[in-house]
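Bench notes, afternoon.
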Amino acid sequence: MLNIKKYAAIDIGSNAVRLLISNIIEQKGKPPLFKKSSLVRVPIRLGADVFISNQISKENEQRMLDTMNAFRLLMSAHKVVAYKACATSAMREADNGVEVTKAIAKHSKIKIDIIGGEEEAAIIAATDLQSYIDDSKTYLYVDVGGGSTEFTVIHEGKTVTSKSFKIGTVRLLNDIVNKEAWFELESWIKASTSEYEKIDLIGSGGNINKIFKISGKQIGKPLTYFYLTSFYQMLQSYSYEERITVLDLNQDRADVIIPATRIYLSAMKWSGARDIFVPKIGLSDGIIKSVYYETVSSVSLT
């Protein structure tokens, strides 16, 4: 007999805010199945405020509140039994981040946890990759966000090391990532991957998902370094408007997709990876797992 319950994850990123609702299917004597049911994305772009002024603007605070109220109604309509809301780079760096979360908790009853970069990397690394990876291989898992990018080395199915870097698409758009940050990332990737003879990349994030969709590749097949390099050059040859009209990108995707591709290409170059796999998983999936397995720290809807 099946037991099916719905759990939700709210991912408050520097570029967008997402609500993921998943069905957790329990069968006696078998591990639970996690099946995505609904995904809603709102492009608030908190990082555009925070990385320049260190503050979340009043306008975006109100948009956040409206979004959380909408998410709460959606979770109620879906009969979600438990959820967890995590805020990442932009919210943790905002001088008024804690103040904003308190206001949201008061007016929407949504409790937001502001998580650190290392915790974010750990949650992402805990996503169920087993159906996507080969335990005999080594991978560099790269999750590109608006404010930061999380990197995890996976060898023979186990996490070797993880680190978060303040190199994200919104920061790059605003030209606030210095050469030292890039040098630190390059050094870390080379040091963390040099002992392995062959490495593949696993890419997650909305931008690489979109690139994979445009490529027309079959699910499970990788994108090559050559393809991604060519795609990057094509993106740069198009104007912002052409990226929207010709490539059918959303307005908030048409600008960040270029710096995102640069991050993935840099990671491939410095690790020596020739292929990048795109399993369409990320922080939201990790949050869902933590809600399910750590019910003590989750927030039940009432």
